[in-house]
């Protein structure tokens, strides 16, 4: 098993980050192009705690190294199942995900947490556990795990860059929207 | 907004996603949530349409079976994340 961990700070409020997070993989994000689809499978607010629970299916298309691709059966489309929890009271977003494709040879479990550091800063903590399940040589398992962790770190770097763009665009769109609403109320008042 | 894995569901998905995002960004978190006002009801009709389309797409592609197994594995995450005031983490 190999562990990949990463943490970042975004100069945006938790409210902004947790909202923009829902469109992290929209066309504004030109960096995370390996994510080709994001589907919502279920969503509800827990009546007791107010926690918003969402299940999503994330579809990726990414070329793997040739030797790895042949081990994985030659397909480059993969699916990830994600469950997320938004706790509005403690201001915490937790996202847990697991690979669906190739799960007989490789297990990737990822956990991401977004929490406020201050009124204008949000911390992102990511941890991924990669375990090769394929029987046989330890050398092969190590190589599979290493290649996966390497891809994780590459995606994490690009993910941060892409998400920064989404945050910037979200802030701009929201302020434009607010201005429009303000103008409308003003014209009604007149 | 991001696409659906099933192109035929893109249109209904887009409508639902916009509704949800509007609700999420306009809900006064956490006050409205906890007062029970922040229910996702206003988007539920749109979600129903989207889900109807998606369910058959997942079935066609054989993804529904994989999902069932994953859901089973994720149950322990619920135990850790659907309640408050406890820092223990099921996964790590």
TrEMBL record, chain A:
<dbReference type="GO" id="GO:0005758">
    <property type="term" value="C:mitochondrial intermembrane space"/>
</dbReference>
<feature type="domain" description="PRELI/MSF1">
    <location>
        <begin position="1"/>
        <end position="175"/>
    </location>
</feature>
<dbReference type="InterPro" id="IPR037365">
    <property type="entry name" value="Slowmo/Ups"/>
</dbReference>
<protein>
    <submittedName>
        <fullName>Protein UPS2, mitochondrial</fullName>
    </submittedName>
</protein>
<dbReference type="Pfam" id="PF04707">
    <property type="entry name" value="PRELI"/>
</dbReference>
<dbReference type="InterPro" id="IPR006797">
    <property type="entry name" value="PRELI/MSF1_dom"/>
</dbReference>
TrEMBL record, chain B:
<dbReference type="GO" id="GO:0005758">
    <property type="term" value="C:mitochondrial intermembrane space"/>
</dbReference>
<protein>
    <submittedName>
        <fullName>Mitochondrial distribution and morphology protein 35</fullName>
    </submittedName>
</protein>
<dbReference type="GO" id="GO:1990050">
    <property type="term" value="F:phosphatidic acid transfer activity"/>
</dbReference>
<dbReference type="GO" id="GO:0005829">
    <property type="term" value="C:cytosol"/>
</dbReference>
<dbReference type="GO" id="GO:0005634">
    <property type="term" value="C:nucleus"/>
</dbReference>
<dbReference type="GO" id="GO:0045332">
    <property type="term" value="P:phospholipid translocation"/>
</dbReference>
<keyword id="KW-1015">Disulfide bond</keyword>
<comment type="similarity">
    <text>Belongs to the TRIAP1/MDM35 family.</text>
</comment>
<dbReference type="InterPro" id="IPR007918">
    <property type="entry name" value="MDM35_apoptosis"/>
</dbReference>
<dbReference type="Pfam" id="PF05254">
    <property type="entry name" value="UPF0203"/>
</dbReference>
